[in-house]
Amino acid sequence: MKRLIIIFLLFISLVAFAGEEELKARLEENPLDFEALQELLELYEENQDYWGYISTIVELTEKLEETYSEIMPYVLQAARYAVEQYYDAEAVTLYTYFLNRMPRVSVLKEFMRELEYLYDYEGTLEDVILNAVSSFDDEKTILEEVHEYADEEYLTYVQKGIERILYKKYGEVEYMIPYLELLLDDGKYDEVKKALEEHEVVLKDKPMFFYMKGVLEVVRRNYDGAYELFKTARIMEEGLEDLERAMDLLDRLYVPDYLIEFYYTLLIDLNEENQIENLKNFATKRGEIKWIASFLEGLPEPVKISEVLQATGTIYAVTEYHLDSDMIYLALLNESGEKLFRSADIDFGKFFSSGILYVDYSYDYLRVVYEGEIKKAWEGYDTIDVSPVGDKFVISSYDYNDMKCISLDFEELWEQEILPYNAYPASWSIDGNFLLVENYDDYTRVLIDAETGETVKTFENVDDYKYLFLGKGEDIYGIDYDGNIQKLLPVKPLLTMRKAEWAVMIDEEDLLYYEIISSFLDNLYLGNLLIYNTISHTEKLIDSDVLFVPSFIPSVKIKRGKLLYVGYRDSEGFLVMYDLNTGEKDTLFRSPKVVLAFPDLLSR
Which residues lie below 8 Å from residue 191, measured CB to CB, with a gap of 6+? Predict the structure, then answer.
């Protein structure tokens, strides 16, 4: 009996399969066979084959050039199934198809409600929303209606997206403040500052205008300036109502809780007598602040980089990693080894022009800073590399997924949507006219004209090489996974005697390359540094126990005929200057139990 039941069920399955294939064949032959479509979809629902239902409708909509009302209910149902089954891309496609052909506000709101929780689809959120409303008669009015709905339903993601559209596409300044709040969340402080300045005439009667300016000052640690701006906002008609919103902004920017609480205490009641009482209560609750302050009173002011740069003679920059404390500092030293400046908020520095570039970690966001004859900052950027000629530098950002090139006059030369792979430095041509970067997103290597930012060439079939670097002009060299160096186009192997990990051209004939001998600490290496002549095919060992850091930042510095490198030997970090012309070697500094990295020098 049991065997008969199994045979019966198998027979039913075969019949169902045969029916499905027959119906699919009918649809393939005639996409307008709506009777076959209905029977096929009913079969899918009966078998709970929701992907079959969804994929059938998606394929059908791609084939039909005209709109047929007969299929529209199935399109809507397929979109709903796609949401339920977590097929985000298909849900977006089907809802958009429906709305483009039968604009219905109720369906649009349904789509927006679902879109709040979808993420795996092509394009930006704004692209999806704009496509969905493109067939409505009054797009702007519909967007405003859906914005109100999103606000009521707490669809924050969708609400912010609509606000961005209303501000960016239609210039509706009333939606600008929420849009700028989103930019603040993303750490785009310069964009917020610029927008507030440009629209001051329109926004200056709104408390949030001054609150946001105050938030920017808190981010920059100008606490007095922030308080004055907060007070200006607080005394306005809706200032008290927006106070919580401003404090929430500070919280979203990871401003310390005690500081937010202190600002709130100062601002909640501006009556002097009441303010004093509120401050007393704050001091009672936050007794630890007085205790901390007792240690800070009387401390000397920290040395400023701008003051150090005024010193005469050569200044050296080097990163210190202290093994005993696991702390990292940037140190600036003079020729006698005296430390002129040290900071735990800066990992490395690169001299440029008459000043220094560094990545500042002292805030709750990263930024590249230049200090010298002027002070400039690029917020959100976290890597730096300077041209070998010293006439420009590039910065890149993991958050923004882009790279900028800045000139000697601190003007932006170009910007590319590229995220450099940070296991190796970017490679500059000897003359600084070209830049070769590996893109982290797809691991392609891109040759860029360093003056214009135009892509000269993209290398997609170079997987046999772990690193590519530039020689003279557009000459390309590669290091394969066996450590062999070859000139590309046409391929010409170099006769190096060691296995290379990284290399850079010093001039038109000589290249410097690094050979790994042993791993060191966490993801660092010690090895040999060598010079190879591409004409005579001879090479010379410069030093051993030299440090190599897998990073976008070069581990050595070549400047004006000098090679600066660091290493670790006999429990000491050392910094060495090597004269590329004479071959003379001078150990500048030694630091017990301190690993030195990323050296640079500024000659006067």
Answer: 183
Distance between CA atoms of 580 and 558, rounded to whole angstroms? 9
pLDDT in tens, 400-414: 778 999 999 999 999
Sign for the CA dihedral angle at 127, 129, 130, 131 comes to positive
Structural domain includes residue 259: yes
* Distance linking the first and last C-alpha atoms of the chain: 99
Q: What is the Cα 3 distance to its own chain's centre?
A: 63
Residue of 501, 487, 584, 583 whose CA lies nearest to 537: 487
* Confidence check: pLDDT of 274 > 80: yes
Name the residue among 131, 140, 65 with its Cα closest to residue 100.
Answer: 131
Integer Cα distance of 512 and 504 in angstroms: 5
Rg of the Cα atoms in the chain: 32
Other beta carbons less than 10 A from residue 149's beta carbon: 18
What is the tens place of the pLDDT at every residue in 151-206?
899 998 899 899 889 988 888 877 888 888 888 887 788 889 988 998 898 888 99
202 with 287, same domain: the answer is: yes
Specify the pLDDT at position 363: 67
Tokens, residue 430:
């000897």
Tell me the pLDDT band of 490, cut-offs 50, 70 and 90. Answer: confident
Give the predicted TM-score (pTM) of the model.
Answer: 0.66
Residue after which a domain boundary falls, among 296, 315, 341: 296
Count of domains for the chain: 2
pLDDT at residue 602 tops 70: yes
Q: Same structural domain for residues 64 and 201?
A: no
The Cβ of residue 455 has, within 10 Å, a number of other Cβ atoms equal to 12
CA distance 240 to 233: 8
For residue 193, what are the domain limits?
177-296
DSSP type of residue 446: E
For 571-580, give one letter per residue: b (16+ CB within 10 A) or e.
ebbbbbbbeb
Check pLDDT > 50 for residue 587. Answer: yes
Q: Do 73 and 170 belong together in one domain?
A: yes
pLDDT tens for 353-392 read 999 999 988 766 788 999 998 889 888 888 899 999 999 9
Q: What is the mean pLDDT of residues 250-266?
A: 91
Residue keyed to tokens 């930012």:
453
Side by side, the strands of the sheet bearing 476-480 are 465-470, 476-480, 485-487, 492-493
Same-domain check for residues 81 and 155: yes
Beta strands in 363-509 (DSSP E): 367-371, 375-379, 383-386, 392-397, 402-407, 412-416, 427-428, 434-438, 445-449, 455-459, 465-470, 476-480, 485-487, 492-493, 502-505
